[in-house]
Amino acid sequence: MTPAEPETKKRSYATAITLGMLLLVVLLTCVPYLVSIAFAEGPAPDNAADASPIFGVTIPAGYKQWELIAPAEEAPPLDELRAVVGNQTAIDAYQAAKLPFPDGTILVKRAWKRKQSPEFASATVPGVATTVQVMVKDSKKYAATGGWGFGRFIDGKPVDAAQHRTCWGCHEARAKSHDYVFTRLAP
Q1: Contact 151, 75 (CB under 8 A)
Q2: What is the 3-state secondary structure (H, E, C) of the chain?
Q3: Residue 86: predicted pLDDT
Q4: Do residues 94 and 106 make contact, with C-beta atoms less than 8 angstroms apart?
Q5: To pair with 115 at 20 to 30 A between CA atoms, which of 2, 100, 138, 160?
Q6: What distances in angstroms separate CA 61 from CA 32, 117, 124, one per listed residue?
Q7: How far apart are CA 124 and CA 115, in angstroms?
Q8: Which residues contact 67 (CB under 8 A, 6 or more apart)?
Q9: Distance of alpha carbon 22 from alpha carbon 28, whole angstroms
């Protein structure tokens, strides 16, 4: 054994330990980040029963934390309070006054029965939730309906195909000049 051999073995051992530690640091740093991204995206729908008929739209994960675009009040007979929220693509498009909306835009309308506040008689507050309505922009997938897919849900379940057939006709007839979207950004 030459005098240089023990030195080479020490360097190999030190290099292996250094690389092992580096790998450990990378794993401990990156894996939690990648897992958090996966959870933020939300789980994929586990069955087609959760998707709207005709369009295949589902309720997006995390939508209750999305930014408000505008509130609305629906007169009787619906007598509802509504709030439209959007994903970041929608918010960016609204703030830039960009029409048509870009693919990837998702708008969610939450609706509740109006209820008189028990604490303040002249105030109206949300009562029982009535529907969640979703619009998803994908100009290729939904080319026949102005680039929009629609979903209407009661208690988390999609309503029937007959109700979904009415979505496009209403939006086409009344909101064509605003890329088929009724809601305007609240000031």
Answers
A1: no
A2: CCCHHHHHHHHHHHHHHHHHHHHHHHHHHHHHHHHHHHHHHCCCCCCHHHCCCCCCCCCCCCHHHCEEEEEEEECCCCCEEEEEEECHHHHHHHHCCCCCCCCCCEEEEEEEEEEECCCCCCCEEEEEEEEEEEEEECCCCCHHHCCEEEEEEECCEECCHHHHHHHHHHHHHHHHHHCCCCCCCCC
A3: 98
A4: no
A5: 160
A6: 20, 30, 28
A7: 5
A8: 85, 86, 88, 91
A9: 10
Question: Which position has the token pair 């589902």?
Answer: 58
Cα angle: 149, vertex 129, 158; to 5 degrees: 35
**Whole-model pTM?**
0.74
- Residues β-bridged to residue 175: none
| Short-list 152, 138, 80, 137, CA closest to 107 | 137
Per-residue pLDDT tens listing for the chain (187 residues): 555 566 666 667 677 677 656 555 544 554 443 443 344 333 444 456 799 999 999 999 999 999 999 999 999 999 999 999 999 999 999 999 999 999 999 999 999 999 999 999 999 999 999 999 999 999 999 999 999 999 999 999 999 999 999 999 999 999 999 999 999 999 9
Q: How many CB atoms within 10 Å of residue 120?
A: 9
